[in-house]
Design a protein that fits this description.
The chain is of the alpha+beta class. It has a domain of about 150 residues. It contains 13 helices and 22 strands. Strand 21 and strand 22 form a beta hairpin.
């Protein structure tokens, strides 16, 4: 949901900026071919550019993460899969989806209605050929219009031979320049983006440019042709999927007939270069995502989120005293963990489980993200990166993974990869630091960051029926995985 909103904002910004440049610098110039290409390309640019990541997502190590005492957690067994994970929308998202699809359906029905209007006019009209064009007399009073290679007029009797030649020359130009495909493309855009006013503004401006191009093909004096345009303006308009004489502003078309752009005005075309540069720099996929981890005291900003850490607390661990070989208890200072995400309390998986034990399952549930699932998702999608590792067991030092209320990963800490080795043939393992090449470390860190950034969303944790942020349990992150012959053999 958040990613979609960001995409719409970036797309809208590109379209709005492009239309402002068009209205200020190009709309009154007679370079109609360029203007048509400009409108089509900037519209497509607005659709595609926000999806493009022109630089990799930044990554960094969180330092040596202390391994705190494992919290009790009832991790569910569902694993994250790379391609089959289902997105579960909240009630509000379902309502928005219903409204959107209703709008698409209404727009589609109206388009189908317009299409049948053209088809019925063709079936019921009298037809005769004029070169490659078919002229259809509908018997109804309306402005002349064209679709594909068909020209629809009320009746030949309503026009002199000279006026009929003007109509055919005008409409034939629409056909030669394939304007209909522009109309079809924009009509699809209006169906899919029915809620977006800038789509209709683009369609309107493109339609005007089409008329400018068709008008320029008519070999008539501006005064005589302008008078004919005015006469047609009072007639009924045409279906949306066609070009009509009276759809575009007549005054602008008459003024454009006498417009001659100077060679100096061609320099305005260079304005498109900084426009594209601004769009690339400001509105690509990662432009608004704050992928740098900035810490100020106990507050961290990361990926556009604000994380507040809990106050550091002492912790107790049981360890073996190397001098005596006996178990001893040590008090350590555990690093503060994330406590608030965007001013909302972050619940631990253990807290949610305890609430679930006291309340009904409908009121509380564990999120779809688990440490086991995340680990499996990461390692199974790092096949190329893992090929560079030597045979052996490794620890993935990932901790403090926070899932937001929309079911997306919002924060994590990663301290790198270390290799594990057996001691004296026993079952105890130690981490051997700095034995992995830095290039391999960085490649794995970069891939891990990208995978977490683009991880599929899952059903979020709920407390008393409300979706809440959750700190994923870290039990499985502390278990090693095994690589042999460049392949993952054990999670």
């Amino acid at each position: 949901m958040t990613n979609m909103l960001q995409y719409i904002l970036n797309t809208s910004a590109i379209w709005l900026l492009s239309l402002l440049v068009f209205d200020l610098f190009f709309s009154k110039e007679a370079y109609h071919g360029f203007n048509r290409a400009y409108l089509l390309l900037t519209f497509i640019l607005g659709l595609l550019l926000p999806l493009w990541s022109w630089h990799g997502i930044g990554f960094e190590y969180a330092g040596n993460l202390a391994q705190p005492v494992t919290e009790r957690s009832a991790a569910i067994k569902d694993s994250i899969t790379n391609s089959k994970a289902a997105n579960v929308a909240s009630g509000k998202e379902l309502i928005l989806l219903f409204i959107y699809l209703s709008g698409v359906l209404v727009s589609l029905v109206l388009t189908i209605k317009e299409t049948f209007t053209i088809i019925n006019s063709y079936k019921r009209g009298d037809k005769f050929k004029d070169g490659v064009w078919t002229i259809v007399e509908t018997g109804k009073q309306h402005s002349p219009y064209s679709a594909f290679r068909y020209v629809f007029i009320s009746s030949k009797k309503d026009y002199s031979d000279d006026e009929l030649r003007i109509i055919l020359t005008h409409e034939e130009q629409h056909g030669h320049l394939l304007h209909f495909f522009d109309l079809l493309f924009m009509q699809v855009a209006k169906i899919v983006c029915w809620f977006h006013p800038l789509v209709y503004m683009y369609a309107e401006r493109l339609s005007i440019v089409h008329e400018y191009q068709a008008d320029a093909a008519v070999d008539k004096a501006p005064k005589e042709y302008g008078q004919f345009l005015i006469e047609q303006a009072i007639l009924q308009s045409a279906p949306a999927l066609s070009h009509s004489f009276n759809r575009s502003p007549i005054k602008k078309r008459i003024m454009m007939l006498t417009r001659n752009s100077s060679s100096l005005s061609k320099g305005k075309i260079l304005i498109t270069l900084p426009l594209v540069l601004v769009c690339i720099l400001c509105f690509t996929k990662n432009a608004f995502s704050d992928d740098k981890r900035v810490r100020n005291g106990n507050t961290i900003t990361f990926w556009g989120n604000t994380i507040k850490l809990d106050v550091a607390v002492p912790d107790t661990i049981t360890m073996i005293d190397p001098s005596t070989g006996k178990e001893v208890i040590r008090i350590t200072q555990r690093d503060p963990r994330p406590g608030m995400l965007n001013d909302q309390k972050i619940y631990t998986s253990y807290e949610i489980q305890e609430m679930g034990n006291r309340m009904s399952a409908a009121a509380n549930s564990t999120a779809g993200f688990t440490d086991k699932g995340i680990k499996e998702y990461l390692l199974t999608n790092m096949k190329e990166e893992l090929k560079a590792l030597k045979d052996g067991s490794y620890y993935l030092h990932l901790d403090n993974v926070v899932v937001d209320k929309n079911g997306a990963i919002a924060y994590f800490e990663y301290a790198g990869l270390t290799m594990a080795a057996e001691m004296n043939g026993g079952g105890m393992h130690i981490s051997i630091k700095d034995t992995i090449d830095k290039k391999i470390q960085d490649a794995i860190a970069r891939k891990l960051t990208e995978l977490l950034h683009d991880a599929p969303t899952h059903i979020a944790a709920t407390v008393k029926g409300e979706y809440v942020p959750m700190l994923v349990g870290n039990t499985d992150f502390y278990n090693p995985f095994t690589v042999k012959n460049g392949k993952l053999t054990a999670l």
